[in-house]
Write a structure and sequence with these properties.
alpha/beta; Rossmann fold; 2 domains; six-stranded mixed sheet; four-stranded parallel sheet; 16 helices; about 40% helix; about 20% strand
Length: about 400
């Protein structure tokens, strides 16, 4: 099985570029130039230098001793939460701002759910002196207030999406409308491994630094490059794509994807795309999508603002359809309990998105000798109000 995108922008049956005619020049410009730009020695040098000196990479691969003892297996956490801005998102925004500069764009737009991608975009725009507009659902603006404040402090304009569920899907819709109206000077920094080709591939390549580091870090710690399992939460799927990338064609490595089941997969308040989704088109690509019988998008729900998306990236749809990975759906309650467990066992407060991945131990039993690497995709500062309300702290 091949898990690289093909020349038409597809992973198996999923992907492509389903876009309005007005966006064709933008997307085509990106498609025909992104690989050449990324392969330029000057680009690689600047990208690597910023990841090292600005983001703080490599992020540690941390052996979670007490968590391992509790679940009777060897658990390593890939500490993306220690990156500058507090999540994996900055790996991608650093890369895309450098691409945008080389394309001569002087205005950046982005969408955000939990706010981490918005913060990461606002951060790199401040670094490069480029105008930044972030679209965010009105509900997410309320539940992620600290990140909204950070974006504004960094000089970004935060525009609320007031339609639909007023969350990530609707913020993405608004960003696409903006791009249609400003096609010449604007680059859209998509934060997930989703969207029209080449975005899923471009975002995945920038995030693949995660699995690249896991390989050599694990070699140092355990004498081998390949863990038995890699685990990541999935909304759109960028942290997961980066965590899996260098292991997808290594059959000895188990791939585990954890989605948000909200109040229960079949409760009507869920974002478990693998369980509930059918093939459809959203935000410019063909993928698995939660939808009604007549093709209307179903409103997703999760306590996590970063996981309540009705679709999933086309790479992950391909992983699911080919049975390369195991997909699990975790409820709000189980995710919140897993977040509290990590906090009290290891002194690390995770983002609620990451807490979904940490809840895998409820559903999957590992052997004592297994090496399980979990992507700790973000830190929990942004979610403290939600934790406080939930646990009545």
């Amino acid at each position: 099985m091949n898990y690289q995108v093909n020349e038409k922008g597809y992973y198996g049956d999923f992907g492509g570029a389903y876009i309005p005619e007005m966006l064709y020049p933008n997307v085509e410009e990106l498609r025909t130039t992104y690989l050449d730009i990324m392969n330029e020695p000057s680009f690689k040098k600047e990208f690597d230098q910023l990841l090292r000196d600005y983001v703080g990479r490599p992020s540690p691969l941390y052996f979670a001793k007490r968590l391992s003892e509790k679940h009777n297996t060897k658990v390593y956490l890939k500490r993306e939460d220690l990156n500058h801005t507090g999540a994996h998102k900055v790996n991608n925004t650093i890369g895309q701002i450098l691409v945008a500069k080389r394309l001569g764009k002087n205005r950046i737009i982005a969408e955000t759910g939990a706010g981490q991608h918005g913060v990461a975009t606002a951060t790199v725009c401040a670094l490069m002196g480029i105008k930044c507009i972030v679209y965010m659902g009105e509900i997410d603006i309320k539940r992620q207030a600290p990140n909204v404040a950070r974006m504004k402090m960094l000089g970004a304009e935060v525009r609320p999406a007031k339609s639909g569920s007023k969350t990530l899907k609707d913020a993405t819709n608004e960003a696409i409308r903006d791009w249609i109206n400003n096609p010449v000077d604007t680059h859209y920094i998509i934060g997930s491994a989703i969207g029209p080709h080449p975005y899923p591939d471009m975002v995945t390549r920038f995030q693949s630094i995660i699995s690249e580091e896991i390989k050599w870090q694990l070699k140092e710690k355990e004498g081998r490059e390949h863990p038995d399992y890699v685990v990541a939460c999935i909304g759109g799927g960028s942290n997961a794509a980066g965590t899996y990338y260098h292991f997808l064609e290594e059959p000895s490595v188990g791939i585990i994807a954890v989605e948000a089941a909200g109040k229960g997969v079949h409760s009507g308040e869920s974002a478990a795309t693998s369980q509930l989704g059918k093939e459809g088109i959203i935000h410019g690509c063909k993928t698995l999508l939660m939808q009604t019988q007549d093709g209307q998008i179903t409103e997703p729900y999760s306590i996590s603002a970063g996981l309540d998306y009705p679709g999933v990236g086309p790479l992950h749809s391909h992983i699911y359809k080919t049975a390369r990975g195991e997909f699990y759906s975790v409820t709000d309650d189980d995710a919140m309990a897993a977040g509290l467990e990590l906090s009290q066992l290891e002194g690390i407060i995770p983002a609620i998105e990451s807490s979904h991945a940490l809840a895998i131990f409820n559903d999957k039993k590992f052997r004592p000798e297994d090496i399980v690497v979990i992507s700790l995709s973000g830190r929990g500062d942004k979610d403290l109000d939600t934790y406080i309300d939930y646990f009545k702290l």
